[in-house]
Each structure stands twice: as C-alpha cells, then as structure tokens.
Amino acid sequence: MNDLSQLFGGFITEPLAGYKALPESLDSMINQACLSLLDSEILIEDDFSQRLPLSVAKVKQPLPKFEQTFVIDELTKAIKETGFGPHFHQIIGLFGSIMLNLTATEAQQAQVDAWLEKDIFGHFLMTDAGGPSLANWSTELSVSPDETGMHQLKVNKKWGIEAHDLGFVMLVVKQSGKPYPITLMLTPEQSKALKQDKVGRAYLDGVLQLGNVVGEVKVSPDQILKKGGMASVNRFLTLVRPRFVKALMHHLLWLDKENRLDMDAELKTNIDFILGFADHFLAQPDFSIHSVDQVLALKFASNELLANLVASNKVKSFADQRDLLGFTKMEGSSYRCFFEIYAKQKRARR
C-alpha cells in the first residue's frame, strides 16, 4: 500500500468493518483526519509496514448487565424529539452510576446512596491542568501518609461538567511511581473545601456549564475506587461510549427537525451507519480484546462527522457549531482515540 491516508486511516476503519462497508464519504473523512493527526514521532520512527490483520478474539467475557442502561437507552431515544439538552445531565449521571457499580466497594456504594438520598449528586473530574500526559499532571496524591494515616491530595482539574457546584466527586489523580492513574472519591465536605469556578460559556442552549477546581485536601486510603482494577474502566467505556455516540447522532436528527442543520442524503447515510454500528456493537453480549478499539473507532467516526458538518457550513448557528465541536473532545478526542489504537498495534507490527 502506498497511500498513507489509507494505511493510517485503517487503524480506525478496520475496527468498524465488522458491521458493514463504511459509506465512501465517511471512509474518506476518517482517512484524511488520520493523516492530519500524524506527528513527528510517527513520521520519523514508524516503519510504515502493513497493519496486521485483526485476529479472531480467543477469549471473550460476558459484559455485566446494568439496569441503568435501559433508562439511558430510553432517554437516548427521546433526544430525537427534544435534543440532548433536556436529558444530558441525567444520562451523564447514569454513566457515573455504572462506573461506581464497577469500581466502588459495597461500603463506598452505600455512602453514595446516602448522599443521593439527600440530593447530593456526583461529579467526575478527569481533565488536568497539567495537560494530557500523566507525568505532567498537577493533581497528585502523596505517596506517604502523615502521622494520622491520611494522604495529602493536590487538586488542579479543569473543564469538569458542572464543576463550579460540586457535590461528591470521583477524581482521577496521579501517584508518584505508578504508571497509571488512580481514582478517588471525595466526600461533599472535602469537595466544598476546593475552589470552584465557572469557565467559559454554557453549552446546549445554556444547559451545560463547565468549571475548574483547585485546592488541597487530606484523604484516606479507603477513598480509592479500585474494585475491578483497570479492566473495569475498559468495560465501562464499552458500555457508555456507544450510547454517548448514539445520543450525539440523535441530537443531529433533532437539529435537522428544528431546521438548525442542513441534512442531505450523504449525511443521513453516515448518521445511519454510525447508529447502526453502535446498535450492532451493543447487541454483542461479550467483551473481547477488540471491544475497546471498536468503541474508540466509533467515537473517532462520530468526532469527524461532527467536525465536517461545522467545516462545511451545514450547522446554521454559532452556538450549535460550538456544541458539536465541544462534543468531539468529550468522551475521547480523535487524537486520543487514534493514538490509543495506533500505540497498541505499533507494538504488534514490530
């Protein structure tokens, strides 16, 4: 193969190929987007060998079932009639509930239930002021406890959903000497001790506000969410990412219904493919080695479709354009989706 766009675009299109052939325009969109993401390290160090064909997954594990997914699916259907705005917070809250089911101990879950009964809601803080590299994160947990057994936690998170008005918090942090992040759950009292500010204009017709959070608190080791380990995170993403993408596609259908988007046959075909793949994926009962790559590729395809709509002037208002571009960064930017798949296959190609 001497076409670089197809060579690197294949990292995204191959995981999507198990459903049916991609529409030509979506395939081209993905190939060109992958080409634009190539950085100096790839251009200098990649051996430009063919991608290895996807092997049949030898090990499959049943995905856990959650009552929340039924509610999420019903809310997602409603987006076609009302837009994402009226349902956004409830859907994101249900995503958080699934994550807690996968990662929280019984004692931690009981604590959450008690807060929810008092109408104290959870927030998830991931994006760090130190940038995308974990090594540079500013949010850090001290390795050694003090004389009381507590650890010092420095917090510097940005762009969290409704993070200007925190209840309890699920917070992703780094710890010196560990190559992967850990997740802590902060109590409402600890959350109140942190400085919280709105940042930027609201999204989705004023429904969605982002915020920054800075400060220091002391935490105990039993606040770490660690049930299930890293495998739980991957299972969580396979459950929620396709549903998030479906919500975005239904939002596009609503924008068209409200005459806020210029729909044509090509766009409708691309939306139908993305929705069809999401449904096809969610119908699979098992989790395999390919599941994470498939949902990363699906989010990449969604991102590039949304960005293309804005670039081609099919979205009529500035506010809707900003919403759609914002969603290309949420739940996985194209950059992160591509490089996670590429890095995994890069090791196998050598």
Beta-strand residue percentage: 15-25%
Please report the total strand number as a whole number. Answer: 10
Poorly predicted spans: none
Global geometry: globular
Give the averaged pLDDT, no decimals: 93
**What structural category arises from helix and sheet content?**
alpha+beta
Descriptive account of the structure:
This protein has 350 residues and is an alpha+beta fold. 50% of the residues lie in helices and 16% in strands. The chain is built from twelve helices and ten strands. Strands 2, 3, 4, 5, 6, 7, 8 and 9 form an eight-stranded mixed sheet that branches. It has a two-stranded antiparallel sheet with strand order 1-10. The chain is globular and about 60 Å long.
Give the SSE map.
Elements: H1 4-16, H2 24-37, H3 40-45, E1 61-62, H4 67-82, H5 88-103, H6 106-117, E2 122-125, E3 140-141, E4 151-161, E5 168-175, E6 182-186, H7 188-192, E7 195-203, E8 208-219, E9 224-225, H8 229-257, H9 265-282, E10 286-287, H10 291-311, H11 318-327, H12 334-349
Parallel strand pairs: 2-5, 3-5
Antiparallel strand pairs: 1-10, 3-4, 4-8, 5-6, 6-9, 7-8
Helix pairs in contact: 1-2, 1-10, 2-10, 4-5, 4-8, 5-8, 8-9, 8-10, 9-10, 10-11, 10-12
